[in-house]
Amino acid sequence: MEPELVIKPNRFIFLIMAFIALAMSTVFAVFAVIPDLFSDDGAFSSEEQLSIIEIIIFGFFCMVGLFLCFVWMKMFIKDTAAIAIYKNGFEANTNGISTGFIAWTDIEMLEEVLVSSNSGSGTRKEAALAVYLKDPAIYTQRLPLFFQWATKLAGKSGRYSHTNKYGVTENTPPIFLPFAAFGTQYEEAKKLMYAGVKQKTG
């Protein structure tokens, strides 16, 4: 199935992100193994030790960093498309986790929104195209277990609560496609996506 539009990101962004994730993982690993390395008394001089819970937390974030490093290095090597739009649906991979193929018939609606994102200078608003699915499980069940848990946690906040056309209240976050991921092709991609959804649901 040939795509009607393929949008590819700058591959070197993934390389930079992979090194950042590796650095983050290394820091958490160091703190887990040598917690007092940066203390005034120096490493191994303190009698205090991390609790099992603290070690698990540091280890968890270390593993998350390694996982993200692996994903982004894979995207750098494979030169993965950020967004591919087909006649019957689309597939996106804007953050290292692929949505898999999403058919137009599975989409409830599309909406341009502003979402909060964290940066080094604090929280900022970022424009994105939100894709609401008729059955969110189509997407969430494809996610790694950690991201499935994070998605459920975000849904419980009530922040993404909306009522679909069947009168059922959904709390699962939609798929967010940042405008930045489309580059200069946003309007072209938006036109194709809205047309696809309208044709299949109209």
From TrEMBL:
Organism, as annotated: Lacibacter sediminis
NCBIfam families: STM3941_fam (NF041635)
InterPro entries to which the protein is assigned, alphabetical: STM3941-like
Descriptive protein name: Uncharacterized protein
UniProt keyword terms in alphabetical order: Membrane, Transmembrane, Transmembrane helix
Regions crossing the membrane: 12-35, 55-77
